[in-house]
Design goal:
The protein has helices at about 15-25, 65-75, 85-95, 150-160, 215-225, and strands at about 1-5, 25-30, 45, 80-85, 100, 110-120, 135-140, 145, 160-165, 185-190, 195-200. With about 220 residues, the protein is of the alpha/beta class. It has one domain (about 1-225): Class I glutamine amidotransferase (GATase) domain (Rossmann fold). The strands form 2 sheets. A 9-stranded mixed beta sheet has the order 2-1-3-4-11-10-9-6-7, with helices on both faces.
Amino acid sequence: MNSTVIVFPGSNCDRDIAVALEKLNFKNKMVWHKDTTLPKSDLIVIPGGFSYGDYLRSGAMAAKSNILKEVVRFANNGCLILGVCNGFQILIEAGLLPGALLRNKELKFLSKNIFVKILDNKNKFCNKYKKNQVINLNIAHNEGNFFIDKENLKKLEDQNLIAFKYCDQAGKETENSNPNGSIKNIAGIFNEKKNILGMMPHPERMIDHSVSNEDGVGLFLSILS
C-alpha cells in the first residue's frame, strides 16, 4: 500500500509517522509542502507538529500551501487522508473537516497519555478495533479543544461521523477524562464519505511495547485491510 507523508516547516511528527508506516509495510514517501504534485498514494498523512510555528492560527498557513491543493484533489477522489494533531487542525483549516480546534480549556499545553473510545468501527480506519473499545494513546497539543455548532454536531452524531471520544479507562465519558474541553469529549471525526479522519491523539506513538504500547497499531492495520 502506498502512503505519503506531507512535511511542513515545523512538522515534528513526520518521521514518527513514517517509522510507523514503514514498520507495518507501507511503501512510504515524504513530500515537501512546496511541491505541487503527489506520488501514487492510497493514504496521505498530514502529521503533527507546529506548522509555520502556529502563526495566525494552528494550521492556517499550512492549509494554504502548494501541496494542499493536491491533497484536496486526492481527497475528493476518495484517497484516504489521515490528519493527526496539527494535521487535524490543517484539515479543518482547509475545509476538509468541519468545526474548529480552540485553545485547551486550561490554556496550557498538554502532553500526556489518555484513553479514547472507538465509537465507530465500520470504516477503513478503525475496522480492526471493536466498537466501544478503549485504547490508550498520547496527546501533545495546545489547541485541541474541538468545537462545532449545534446543527453540525447533530450531523456528526446522526451520521456516525465521530470516530473517537475521550474517556476514562472504563470507557466512561466524563468531564475529568476530557483533557482539553472538547465538546462532547470528541477526539476525532470523519468526513461524510469516511475517507478522511482527523484526530488529536497520536496513534504513531503507540506502535511498540518497548517504548509505549501497541494500541495505535490497529489503526494502521485497519487501513491496510
